[in-house]
Amino acid sequence: MLTLLQRPAPPSDVLPLFSPEAEGRLERFLPPFQFTSFFSPEDTLLCVLAAERALQALSNTETHRPGGRQPGGTASRSAPAAPLRIVELTAGSGLVGLRLLDLDPGARLLGVDVDPAAPPVAERNARALGVAERARFTQLSVLDPECETLLAGAPIDVLICNPPYIPEPPGMPLAVEAGSGADGAAHLRRVAELAGRLRPRTVALSWCSVGDPVGVTEAMERAGYRLDALYAVAIADGEYSGMVQPYLETLSTAFLDRAPATRHAMAADGAARFAYVLLAGVWVVGDEVREASDAGSAAAAVDGLMRGFAREGLEALREPAMPCEYRAWLLDRWDEIVLRAMLHGPASGRSAAGDDARDASPVARQPTEPT
């Protein structure tokens, strides 16, 4: 169907388009792979990129945990190689963790999600991909104290989380962003706390420019982690973020851009009300705790990036000064259609667990809204 349609206007040349990152990378996750009703492909794909980098960061370290792998992925002669332990919080369909099982055939995955529909969907996906014996999924909230008890059972090599992170206005709780809190960062602060206590070797984390991005970065640095890579995607507002736009504009911790040039770049038909930025970072255990006031800290760099975006729009995302690897893309409305068509295929291939864009919640979303 897409071949019969033409892009209504050339894409902006400020940033590369995001959908090509899915090519080849997500071939195994096409229908009949199933998604939960809260699935959003753009932030999931961004988290996949971060998780892949986290796995690479492990291979670049001198050793894995005792009895584990050595440089270059070879096993220690003194003991059998211990399989990598991957934990995916707010796992949903399990796509990100299952992608890492594809890349490391010896790894083991534990997926956790508060949605009771998520574990059965993820388990079916693991069976379909032939990795069910290496994957386990359970229903549990990341905010529940029992979550820490569950995770503390063994060392964690890669911790993944792509949680709800759009702020919830006081008195306006919605299932689609349940528990994200007034600034959108409640789950993310919890993950930083867990990381500080459980000490996973690497963390792949998703957050966004309207959900206290600087505070999230500070929390990870206080937990003793160093930002190894940062990925950014400029995206237009969706139904929920557009609905809460007046509230977002009251938050000093939310960064968005309403400039006409940016809105036109996001949607040539003028449908975009504003743009914001999806972020995914790779965190590795640092040598020292960095303070936000440190000019070389990741928090200071993210603060500069976000303030630049709010002032200058997409141009500020091109070549910022960052203390780590950095890449940025554009996901305009048309590229969003391309990305969703790649993953969802025909309507007959959609999940029986819910619609293809998190629209089973009490308030439906447009395709551009991440959790």
UniProtKB/TrEMBL annotation:
Gene3D superfamilies: Vaccinia Virus protein VP39. Residues 59-80, 348-371 are annotated as: Disordered. InterPro entries: DNA_methylase_N6_adenine_CS (IPR002052), N5-glutamine_MTase (IPR050320), SAM-dependent_MTases_sf (IPR029063). GO terms for molecular function: N-methyltransferase activity; nucleic acid binding; S-adenosylmethionine-dependent methyltransferase activity. GO terms for biological process: methylation. This is Uncharacterized protein. It comes from uncultured Gemmatimonadaceae bacterium.
